[in-house]
Amino acid sequence: AQTVTQSQPEMSVQEAETVTLSCTYDTSESDYYLFWYKQPPSRQMILVIRQEAYKQQNATENRFSVNFQKAAKSFSLKISDSQLGDAAMYFCAYRSLNAGGTSYGKLTFGQGTILTVHP
Amino acid sequence: GAGVSQTPSNKVTEKGKYVELRCDPISGHTALYWYRQSLGQGPEFLIYFQGTGAADDSGLPNDRFFAVRPEGSVSTLKIQRTERGDSAVYLCASSLQGTGTDTQYFGPGTRLTVL
Are A35 and A45 in contact (CB under 8 A)? Predict the structure, then answer.
């Protein structure tokens, strides 16, 4: 079974500064997706960014970028120019692309990191 | 278009009672997922529907939990003989086809409190 670990329960950053959230995962599969989701107090999970494992190039979405290290099974999220609206719980998630496997379809989430943004 | 909606937003019940939680997916999405999120934790998978059938129900914790999607759209998660340990936020998500490359879009969740 796949596991996702977020070792930082809480992180804080000053507005306009940069912060990096860590995520590691364990899998024996070669084809998968990795995701970062944001969950504000409203509870609604919002997709921030995703990375296909077969792509070597790191994904970027405006102020959000990832550092994907497949061999190390590491997938960190960098938030540049942090804004007050970035404050939320952030979850790293894994999804298998192996249609014959037991993990296909579902997301496996880490424990989350609470991000506080100070003005 | 409208996103995933879930009703009720909050549900308080007493131990031993039966509850139903409803999920309305995005129109046209064939795949629907239920997750459970305990306080301070990440969501945990419960069940996944492809159309009307459950493609994977391996996350349902025991036989008190059951979910249906009779017409391939709205889904209902049913919990019998609720226990205090069932208290959590129940999240629903939908995706267009249910393939590994699909993006799952989440609803706001139902917070269930069992007294």
Answer: no
